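[Meeting: bench + compute handoff]

Bench side (C.D.) handed over the final construct sequence. Compute side (W.E.) agreed to return the predicted structure before the next meeting so the bench team could plan truncations. Sequence as handed over:
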Amino acid sequence: MSPEPIYIRIRKVDNIRHAYLGLEGTILLFGQRQAATDSEMQIPVEQVTISEGRRFEGKRLIAALLCLLSQLLLVAGSYGLASRFVDMERPNTVAAVVVLLLLLVLFVAGCIGFGVFLVMFLCKVKTVRLQVVPRGTTIEFYKHAKRAAEIDDFLGQLRQRQGLVDEPLAALVRRPMGFTTEHSVLPKLAASLYLSVLPAVVTQRPALLVLALPVLAWFGYRQVQYQRQPREFRQAVRSYICGDFEIAIDALQSLRVRLADYVPAHFLLAEVFTRAGRFEEALDITSDLVADYPDLAQKMQSDIWLFKRIHQRRQGEAP
C-alpha cells in the first residue's frame, strides 16, 4: 500500500505566493500559479536534494521603505495644513490642533513601523532548498517559525519516501515531468490596458491614449487567429483549460472524424489523453503520427511513457 498523499503550501523566495508541494507515492509534486498560467512538476523523490539556509526577506525591506515614504508624505501634508490654518482670517485653533495631533500619531506609528520592519529585514529567515539533481531546477521557500513544524514533518516524509524507492523502478523514470496550463487572456488584457492608459490619466494628455492601440491590436489579432480554428477545437481547448478532459476528448474525436487531416487535433488529443491518465490511447494517437512527424511524435511518446511511469509511482502501483 502506498503512503498517504500529503500537501503543504509554501511561499517561495521569488515572492510567488500561490505555490505548493505534495507527496503522492514516491513522486514530489510542485505547483505554482504565475501570471496567467498554472504549472505542475512531477519529480521522482530520489532526484531531490534537501538543504537549508538563511535569506533576507525582501518584502520586509519594501514595507519599511513604504513606512518611510508615508512619513515624508505626512510631513508635507501637515506643513500644508498648518500653513492653511495660519493664513485663514479666522483660524480654527481647535480643528488645527486635532488635525496636527492626528498627523503626529500617524507619524509616530509610521516611524515605529519603519523601525520594526527594518529590524525584521535585518533578521534573516530560514529557507529550505530542494535541488532537482538531473535537471538543475531549484525550489527555494521560506521556513518561518510558525510553520517550521509543518515543513519539518513534510521534509521528514520526503526523506522517508526517498528510502522506499526501488532502484530498478527509479532507473526507469529519468527526469521530472510537468504540465503548464494557460488561463484566459482577459486578466492579462485588462492589466495591459491599465498600464497603457495610465500615462494619459497621470499627465492628463488624451493623446497618450494611443499607447493602448498596440494592446488592442494584439488582442484582436489573437482573437482572429483563435476564431479561424475549427469550432470543436476551440471547444476542446476551453474544456482542457477548465480540466474537463472527457468533454475535450469527445470534441476532438468528433473533429477527427470531420477533419481527419487537421493535425493540431491529433496532438492535442494525445495530450488530453495523457492528462486524463489514458496513456495507452495517447500512445496509439502518437503512433499514427510517427510516419509524418517522426521527431515530434517520438518525443511525445517518450514523454507519455514517462508520465505513465510517474503515474504508477504516484499511485503506488507495481512497474
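W.E. noted at the follow-up: The longest strand covers residues 27-34. C.D. will use this when planning the next construct.
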